[in-house]
Amino acid sequence: MTSYDYVVVGAGSAGCAVAARLSRDARGLLIEAGSAKPPTALPRLAWSLYETSANWADKTADGTLDLPRGRGVGGSSAINAMVWARGHRSSYDWGPGWTFDDLLPYFRRSETAAGRDPVLRGTAGPLTVSPALHQHPLAAAGLEAALEIGHPEAKDVSGGLEEGFGWPDLCIVDGQRQSVADAYLPQDNVDVVADAFVHRIRMRNGRVAGVDYNDTTVDCPQVILTAGTIGSAQLLQLSGIGPADDLRALGIPVVEDLPVGENLHDHALFSVKYDSTRPVPESLYNGIEVIGLAGDLQFLYFARIPIGEVYGIYFSLMAPHSRGRLRLASPRPEDRPLIDPAYLSDSRDMETALTGLDMARALGATRALAPWRGVEPGIGDAKAYLREDLSSYYHYVGTCAMGSVVAPDLQVYGIEGLRVADASVIPDIPSANTNATVVAIAERAAALLNDERVSG
Ligand SMILES: Cc1cc2nc3c(=O)[nH]c(=O)nc-3n(C[C@H](O)[C@H](O)[C@H](O)COP(=O)(O)OP(=O)(O)OC[C@H]3O[C@@H](n4cnc5c(N)ncnc54)[C@H](O)[C@@H]3O)c2cc1C
């Protein structure tokens, strides 16, 4: 059997990027629970992928909200909405080595963003990103609406330095989705095994020893978990790394008592929907072609909602205070974990959402949107409306947070050779859609591994 220098668990956004950037003289094994070729769709039909095997299709523990996440090579980047944006630089302060400026080389390394400022943006990275070339008339009217009521126009809303409204970059190339797997793989020194669910990390004397997937055991001195915010926290707990009391209650022997699964958070998403007076043309892209950052709120225009002639002004809380948790339902790997993002559990988040609702309605009432505006929605009790309308923006982070579960070098506290390098390590969510940040984390993780290899 081939021996590997590194095993990477989970071939999503982070896993594909980490594996692809491993040193050329090292061999890596990338293990993915889902298919090698998950179902795909045109960018404007992204939502249809939720109904396929490319989605784990989790729900919140109380069963009320859908929590899609990608399953298959490409992970969530193969089913996501393709927005490519960094959070504002002020939203990255995760500890030594993890400010926006520290991450900038890795953001740049991941992308080719033609037409943007080459000092700020990448010019030779694997992901080719660009804004919508054909501007959808409703998205264009949405941008006008923002300017009409005094929001600034952002020259590069994906770059991380500006607030305001503009056309974000999208992971769409020649009319097709581009996942992180499409951009980074294959690589000669990386073997990919798909349909392989890792159900245990093996450890010996405070060191990682390998992983078990399906009926197979792989020995390896270096394991990098990139199974995502849900998958990495689930796997660590199944392997005895987590809150000791919870693990003992399930009969799982405790290897390391760490707050794995806590600090789960996400961007809560809300909307105001309007009937349109005229047919809304089909989008050629992803339907989220203009976004705007205003303080702790992001606004986005959905050019077309697939139920009749309706458009939405969506808004999301970019700096949520609410924190939830992920726990195992049982010690059986095949049982889905209990996921409770605890949206709006901190009252400050409801206050921000109320502000967002007022701001979204102000955008909706502008002259710029008058030609489209049909019936204005009746909101009634605003707090009740927001609770009812709430959905996930699918940006789950934080369950293996830097500083409490992993050190700044991404090593799990107490277990040598075991690292986590995906969305789960983000201690405090940045103010944008998370994919670009996750890929930058993965790029930095690979650089750390490669430096360590050189220095022995
Ligand atoms: C529907 C949706 C829309 C989104 N839209 C956007 C967007 O437009 N822009 C944006 O920036 N972000 C978006 N996001 C968020 C973004 O895509 C994610 O934050 C990012 O992809 C997470 O990367 P990751 O590597 O942490 O996890 P993932 O990409 O989810 O990868 C985890 C991988 O690990 C595999 N895995 C899990 N458990 C195991 C196991 N035990 N054994 C083996 N393999 C395992 C999974 O199958 C998966 O392939 C969206 C997410 C979703 C779900």
UniProtKB/TrEMBL annotation:
InterPro entries found in the cross-reference section: FAD/NAD-bd_sf, GMC_OxRdtase, GMC_OxRdtase_N, GMC_OxRtase_C
UniProt record similarity statement: Belongs to the GMC oxidoreductase family.
SUPFAM superfamilies xrefs: FAD-linked reductases, C-terminal domain, FAD/NAD(P)-binding domain
Record protein name field: GMC family oxidoreductase N-terminal domain-containing protein
Keywords noted in UniProt: FAD, Flavoprotein
Keyword match Flavoprotein: yes
The protein's required cofactors: FAD
Residues annotated as domain Glucose-methanol-choline oxidoreductase N-terminal: 70-93
Lineage: Bacteria, Bacillati, Actinomycetota, Actinomycetes, Pseudonocardiales
A Pfam family that the UniProt record links to this protein: GMC_oxred_N
Organism: Kibdelosporangium philippinense
